[in-house]
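Predict the assembly for these three chains.
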Amino acid sequence: MEINLWINGKEFKDDVLPDTVLIDFIRSKGFYSVKRGCETSNCGLCTVLMDGKPILSCSTLALRGNGHDITTIEGIEEEALEFGGFMADQGAEQCGFCSPGFIMTVIAMKNELTNPSEEEIKNYLNGNLCRCTGYMGQLRAIKKYLEKGSK
Amino acid sequence: MFTIDNYVMAENLEEAYSLNQNRRNVILGGTMWLRLGRKKIGKAIDLSSLGLNNIEEDDEKFTIGCMCTLRNIETNKSLNKYFNGIIAKSVNNIVGVQLRNGATIGGTLFSRFGFSDVLTALLSLDTYVNLYKGGIVPLSDFVNMPLDNDILINVIIKKDSRRASYLTHRKSSSDLPVLACAVSNYDGEWNVVLGARPMKAKLINIKKNYNLTKDDVVEEMLEIIKQNIGFGSNYRGSGKYRQILAEVLVRRNIDEIISGGNHGN
Amino acid sequence: MKVVNKGIRKKDAMSLVTGKPVYTDDITQGSYLVVKLLRSPHAHALIEDIDIEKAKNLQGIECILTYKDVPQVRFTTAGQSYPEPSPYDRLILDKRIRCVGDPVAIVAGIDEKTVNKALDRIKVKYNVLEPILDFTKAKDNKIIVHPEDNFKALDSIGADNKRNLCASECTEYGNVEEDFNKCAHVIERTYHTKANNQTMMETFRTATNIDAYGRLNIISSTQVPFHVRRIVANALQIPKSKVRVIKPRIGGGFGAKQSVVSEIFPSVVTIKTGKPAKLIYSRKESFTNGSPRHESEITVKIGADENGIIKVISMHTLWNAGAYGDHGPTTVGLAGHKAMTIYKSMKSFKFDYEVIYSNTMGAGAYRGYGATQGFFALESAVNELAAELNMDPTVLRMNSMLSGEHVGETMPSYFNEVLNSCNLDKCLIRAKEMIDWDRKYPFIDIGNNKVRSVGCAVAMQGSGISDVDVGAVEIRLNDDGFYTLMIGATDMGTGCDTILAQMAAEALDCDFDNVVVHGVDTDLSPYDTGSYASSTTYITGMAVVKACESLRSKIINEGARLIGCLPNEVDFDGEKIYSLNNEKQISLKDIGNESFLGFNNYLTASASQSSPVSPPPFMAGLVELEIDKLTGKIDIIDYVAVVDCGTVINPNLARVQTEGGIVQGIGMALYEDIIFDENGRMVNDSFLQYKIPARNDVGTIRVEFEPSYEPTGPFGAKSIGEIVINTPSPAIANAVYNATKVNIRKLPITSEKIVMGILDIENK
């Protein structure tokens, strides 16, 4: 079926099967940052922004993206570099496989919440699993990033 | 893994309804758990273009379109001014923001999952579902109706000044509840709902004079619950443990409603 | 030190945080066949017939393989040095099914849809047999998991397949019985730990193709590329010279990828079809047929004198190998040898074990490698002993455990190795200060039926496998004076590429950025056993130091020659060779450039390292919990860890390792529990049901270091990767006891067990 959407500002017109999920469509267009970590909507690795909101691209039909704006980390390189720098300074990316989905959610949080408390940060990101870091380094990176943003 | 042969963006509810009468066809909710099964779907019916993704408010009620996401009802300020904010409270442990941006209220309620937080919370309120053929049905009736091919168009929550409280016990923060409990009090009536028993949520309505001392209310209610609500076992917890949890959560919810006590949990 | 002991960014950090395509699936796009496995729904069965006709004829299906199409020579998938101490008990595809999910057929086709369709069309007739699922009843059971005659153990590991014995051994030192009789206090308890899945975020995956030289190339998410080369060649019965293994960036491993889980299947497809093939395990497959931690049942007996000083320990250990013996005979050894060794006051010990086959999924290596199970049992028993003696468990430990005082002494339960470095006493003292133990022990009542309690545990691990692990490195000087560090050690997110480059930069007095590192390619990289057994920093690190020393002297020789001096007349400051007697000098850059011209020497050095000892790192882990005594709910408030890993090469990465290991340990302690139904099917085979800690589950974790100096390690370093998972289970169990008097001896520690335990005590 015909689909017409924007990934990182670039328009894509294509023919997709009705059961193609968004992650597979996005990866097929060369945006390999988007990762799959489970089949049950629990890990958050595949998080992309649809019209600015974080969604699970593994559980969203590609056709549901029709007419919408999709953003992956490739589309926000500047913010990724900035926040990623704070991550790197903590060693908080570790294996890095969950980083793109996590960073997309952090960016969404920054846009949605003003001066979030530690509890609000943790709640907002609770759907992003990480098996390497124990989450502490990520929290340190977020706090430094938000501190800098509020200055 | 599921398969879908055809995808139909429904132009009106009649079209959606008639397509949905074929057993191979399915109305799409948020599709968050579509991949859990091995469903072979003929036509996937999408209600996205029918304007059912709004929360409307008038003097008497909230009307929540079936395509509203759990995140919509979590962040809606006027909705959560009511009922001590239990609607937001009932969803914010569900996996993560991403999932709640996808999962719809229609899909959640129509499935009537035993473990449902939202179903448990809404049952304690004066809640109705508006079905395309079935019309407006109290949620407490709907929960016990068999799964059919009707369409849940929207959810209606009557505004009243009831006080409500919602607590769950979970093994970990993003897990399904071991037990969910909602209690509300309005005009001398208590609604006690226990969900994730692990069977479907069950509502007990107790008419009790409000000015009884707290302990009397609690003890009587616990006795009624014991007689009317059963608990089962699964690997999240035994029936016996759920019974123990039920007593604690009901007590704490009632305490919260009567004295505004805060037990966290 | 200029570069070592600095919290430098990982070399690959910025590419990871900007989502660059660096993982196996990202770099193998294009026309790869999709490979999937048809898996058995039965735990124990014989395949009577497989009908693949209807599947084979589907358009787009390239190849379907059954047991009839693969070599019938047994091997092990355990990624260990040859001869592997794990039995050769596996075939690529076997007529006999030993656990649910055992592979029955390999299907390859042009896309996922087609392959799924083919899988549905394969008809298998099974002769379903009764399974033996309970490993505690499997020894000498009439149901035999491995009745085959070509079962083979290369080493004397005490295996007897006709008795369902994968391995067994008994070690005794001193006179255990006599010492128990002398003891004023003896306790004996049985503990049970469950199988846990590593759940690295990137599931198992491998892509294969035939390269320009007609060789099989394997691009795989593995911790053990060189073992993969050997094991795949053995399994496929092809020469090792025909196999090349490339390890790109890996999305976590934690031991799971120390087994050859996914590599063989696409390899066989590529060999049969000549076409590129790729197998990506689903999360479900990674759960149901991965390589989880061995389930264990450990009976600990401890004898102590009237002052509570531990005099004798015995541990009897039952280990569930599951269907296959990967890592069974080796993990079990750590349960005793690593755990008991920490109690230096012990005069005698006995450690006996049996590793048992059953019809559950085969286990493998998981961070801690058996020591984790041993420490839960032993540390819990020590805490129970302290409770019985009415002693503070930290005080009891201070009197019995290894400390700085014991440096120079031999450790009989640790293969008579000599202790060269230890700050365990300092770790425990500091951890107590950090958590304010003396004020909080055993608990503080905070009202509303809630209490806050503290609990403790100590642990050690090793650094590499003595006399077995090998790490080789090569370092080259290039034009412009930069270095290429070639390593075979496998960075799986841990940061070993970075810390090894830090060591090289330190040894060569240069800027960290002046050392470039390459991922592993078995054609190019020097041999390394791989990243496991906490070996990389210690073993490969030492090889880096040696290679750099060697290159350094070559640079000095060459530099001296170029400026017309003798080597003993010059020095090297990292940037230039300069004469000690006159103004002559030459920059490293110029030496590099010269070395690329005729008549000069191209400068490169290599070194290989193995170690006769495996020096233990140490740590103390203390936890503060909040427990709701009515619901049993546990909240982790604070976890405090103080680690002695010798010199900390990169404090940031060591800290994150520690935090991450603790959180995995918390998962093991509180949630993670592989459960099989009565037919042997794993019930909780998804993240929906198998919960790993999310960020709201873990409270605050605080980490400090008390570095000792390990004389046999690079710059004084020991290992860090594994030890950090060992303390949460016993420390949390201890805190639960301190709050409620309930001893939970079977993991995971759930709210329900706490509440039922409290009720039991009340009803007594």
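Chain C has 19 helices and 30 strands. The interface with chain B takes residues 112-113, 116, 448, 628, 630-631, 633, 670-671, 675, 683-684, 686, 688, 691, 693-694, 696-697, 750-752, 755-756 of chain C (CB under 8 Å).
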